[in-house]
Specification:
heterodimer; A: about 290 residues; alpha/beta; Rossmann fold; 2 domains; five-stranded parallel sheet; two-stranded antiparallel ribbon; 14 helices; about 15% strand; B: about 400 residues; 16 helices
Chain lengths: ~290, ~400
């Protein structure tokens, strides 16, 4: 099976670094979930879509929230609907199966064709959540006691899991995953990304804007560092606003697009003022 | 670097299937993706990898390098480890993969020796760069056996164990105080998504048989607690009382999450994950803030007794490697600003707080509400921590 392996090479609108492509292909060939970590805005979620596009598979997205339970991904037994139906003598109340709805994981298992299953932001859920999915991800099946039925994957889905590292994930879970850390794109990578998203943009503007962008990311104490998507939005704003590249050497227009948190704006102001103070206090400082 | 047998088998399987594609780069990524599960270990992996493949890292095609590698019989141990033997048996010897599987066998055997071999190397390196400072420290480190660093590590563990060493007297009083924080849990917000069957039957009966569903919130304590403990230096004289608090907090299972972190005298740009506050095992304070939001309740345990410079001077930290660019006070204020629910517990008897020898205590107490670390103090602290400081 591994010999006929599917190879992922990125897509037209998604630039994947070589090591990332490599990890995707390793995970696919080994049939193990790929765990993606990295700063917000490094394209973790987009990767799954890109894989699905490239391989022409259906993409099933399971977005995790703080209240999500592992069972939600398997199936939901709609007790309430059944109670209601029984009240009004609805036909088929005795058929439990009618009230079993498959969750996202169940959907991916049931699908005739191979799918890409994205478990998005797994670290949002409870600490125990990943452990509750170990069996399902290992064996690719689960049992529904209500209908005495086992749902097994017809085609092993390609599982992509993303994490923003808000919580540490359990070791047992990590052991089963292929791990990849998406680094924040460096300047040459960023250029490629910009080229894919914004065509016909003035080279000098990109250059100046990128310089400012990476400078801002360096400021210590910024809580939410501007990410790729913010840079792209900002570039678009600059183009729409008809900002000339020269203006960027003097100021940072539309700063709010890059720094979205009020605290970060304050922090920046603090740093700027601190800088001035430092200089006035110690004129000797180079 | 923690690598389990499970992961190693997967790696072996992947190699056997030719997934390294006979290239060193392929091998590098494959091993990293399968074996290393945290970006924090990437640097160590790199160090080991390059040390291992020193000299051939620029050669893309491994075949010629591998031939040379295999010719060097010194690398082959005459008595391979049992894992190595098993490893060879499982690796298929089909056709073109012969080279690679042999290489794997070698790797495995050498891997068994790695601890000793590399540790020696690391020690040499450390010794030679010790005077230059900085470099030598952060560079190479291997979990496992032998070497100076391991001794430190062991020491660290021992200290930690001592913290956990159960001592029953008075712990209960602390436990009771901590338990009072439970009252907060009744205010759990969140969706009412649990069907209360009993109440539903009741309500339906009262409703003349018409279905009346009763939902409620799952009862859960949503409190997340962070505890920062001063772990070295002057605090050690209050070791016992701190230990009791540590134990009490450890036993309380009713919080959603409770985590311990450490500092030495004052908090700067790093929060340490073990009582041995070393630069090996820390989280940058900025990152700490980002990943642990201000909903956490923060208990700081420390004597707040230090040299004034540690609080007020840039570079005044007692740990030289701390090299703080901003004053301790700035950092303390930042902590206070980020965590509105914070109290400082001080094991120093309250009567001493205004002594000249403890003159940093009132300074810290201006930033955090401070309580003496005894059962009554803890009780008042728990009352305070229910409300925001700002």
């Amino acid at each position: 099976m591994a010999d006929s392996e599917l190879r992922f090479e990125g897509t037209d609108d998604y630039i994947a670094a070589d090591d990332l492509k490599n990890s995707v292909n390793i995970a696919t060939a080994l049939g193990r979930p790929l765990l993606l970590k990295g700063e917000p805005g490094t394209g973790k979620t987009m990767l799954a879509k890109s894989i699905a596009d490239a391989l022409n598979f259906e993409l099933i997205v399971w977005s995790i929230k703080s209240t999500t339970k592992a069972k939600d991904g398997l199936y939901i037994y709609d007790t309430v609907q059944r109670l209601y139906d029984s009240q009004f003598g609805e036909a088929g109340v005795d058929d439990v199966g009618k009230y079993i709805h498959l969750g996202k994981l169940g959907e991916a298992f049931r699908s005739e064709a191979q799918t890409v299953l994205l478990i998005d932001e797994i670290d949002k859920a409870d600490l125990e959540f990943p452990n509750d999915l170990l069996w399902e991800l290992d064996m690719m099946d689960f049992y529904i006691p209500e209908t005495k039925e086992t749902v097994s994957a017809r085609q092993r889905p390609i599982v992509i899991i993303t994490s923003n590292a808000e919580k540490e994930l359990p070791d047992a879970f990590l052991r089963r995953c292929i791990f990849h850390y998406i680094e924040f794109p460096d300047e040459s990578m960023m250029r490629k990304i910009i080229a894919v998203h914004l065509k016909d943009i003035e080279e000098r503007l990109v250059e100046r804007a990128m310089k400012r962008f990476y400078q801002l990311r360096q400021v210590s104490g910024i809580m939410k560092k501007p990410s790729t998507s913010e840079l792209l939005d900002w570039l678009q704003a600059l183009v729409r606003g008809g900002v000339r590249p020269d203006r960027l050497t003097r100021e940072i227009p539309y700063l709010g697009v890059l720094l979205k948190k009020n605290e970060d704006m304050l922090r920046l102001r603090q740093v700027v003022q601190g800088d001035k103070q430092d200089m006035s206090l110690n004129p000797a400082v180079p | 670097m923690p690598v389990s047998l499970n992961e190693w088998i997967v790696f072996a399987d992947a190699l056997a299937r030719g997934m390294a594609r006979d290239s060193l780069t392929g091998f590098y990524y494959l091993a990293r993706a399968v074996l290393i599960k945290s970006e924090k270990h990437f640097d160590r992996y790199d160090t080991v990898f390059f040390q291992y493949f020193d000299g051939i890292e620029t050669v893309e095609d491994v075949s010629s390098a591998a031939a040379e590698f295999l010719d060097n019989q010194n690398l082959l141990d005459t008595s391979p480890s049992p894992e190595g033997a098993a490893f060879r048996e499982t690796a298929p010897d089909n056709g073109q993969e012969v080279d690679l599987s042999l290489l794997k066998g070698t790797l495995q055997i050498k891997g068994a020796k790695r601890g000793k071999h590399l540790d020696e190397k690391a020690n040499q390196k450390r010794a030679s760069s010790a005077s230059s400072g900085g470099e030598g420290e952060g560079g190479v480190r291997f979990g496992g056996t032998g070497g100076g660093l391991t001794a430190i590590k062991v020491a660290g563990q021992r200290k930690y164990k001592e913290y956990r060493d159960d001592k029953l007297t008075n712990i209960r009083q602390f436990e009771m105080a901590l338990r009072s924080l439970r009252q907060l849990s009744s205010k759990v917000d969140g969706p009412k998504d649990e069907l209360n069957l009993e109440a539903t039957v009741d309500a339906t009966g009262r409703n003349g048989g018409m279905l009346d569903l009763v939902w409620e919130r799952p009862r859960k304590n949503n409190l997340k607690i962070l505890i920062f403990m001063d772990s070295v230096g002057s605090i050690s004289r209050y070791h016992d009382v701190c230990k009791r608090l540590f134990n009490a907090a450890h036993r309380t299972t009713h919080f959603k999450d409770i985590k311990f972190y450490y500092f030495h005298n004052c908090i700067y740009d790093a929060i340490y994950k073990s009582p041995m506050v070393s630069r090996e095992n820390f989280i940058p304070t900025d990152e700490f803030f980002r990943t642990r939001n201000s909903e956490h309740r923060l208990l700081i345990v420390g004597d707040a007794t230090m040299h004034v410079n540690e609080l007020l001077k840039v570079g005044g930290a007692i740990n030289f490697d701390e090299n703080n660019q901003e004053t301790g006070m700035t950092w303390l204020e930042r902590v206070a600003a980020h965590y509105p629910y914070t109290v400082w517990l001080n094991p120093v008897p309250k009567a001493w707080w205004d002594r000249y020898t403890h003159r940093t205590i009132p300074m810290v107490a201006k930033v955090f509400p401070m309580f003496e670390l005894n059962p009554t103090g803890l009780e008042s602290a728990m009352k305070k921590i229910r409300t925001k400081n700002h």
